[in-house]
Amino acid sequence: MSSSPSIRTAIKCVERADAFQISAGNLYTADDEWFAVCYFYAAYHLVRAAFIADPVFDSIQELAAKDGRLVMEDRFIERHQGRVDGRTRTLGVNDVVRLLYPDIAVEYRRLHAASVAVRYSEGLRTISPDTVLDDFNAVRAAYDGGLRA
Length: 149
Description:
Number of domains: 1
Number of helices: 6
Number of strands: 2
Helix content: 55-70%
Shape: globular
């Protein structure tokens, strides 16, 4: 459970995404690999904004047609990875992106992997800075183009 209240409006998510994108650009220019973390979180907030605004979350039937594990409350999902809860596996943002927005799923997961590599491993060794930037731009373009399930 989160220790602070989550952002629950698309507008606020986009504002956070824009702030992270600016920070990412500054870090990229400074040749600081932490730009990858900022680009990932910018993408994270964009897909959360898409979830909040996506009408697919208004219909349990439409969600079930996409995947039987999707529920209306997934509109506000925050955790990156799904978890096993008892005998069922809950979904994470990565899963919902894969299910609803397959056109950007590879780019989004690669951004997440780059962020994890910088934060917890040896940094950007297998993912190039240009790939990170291209992946973010793909997510941004999809969101700006009206990302919907």
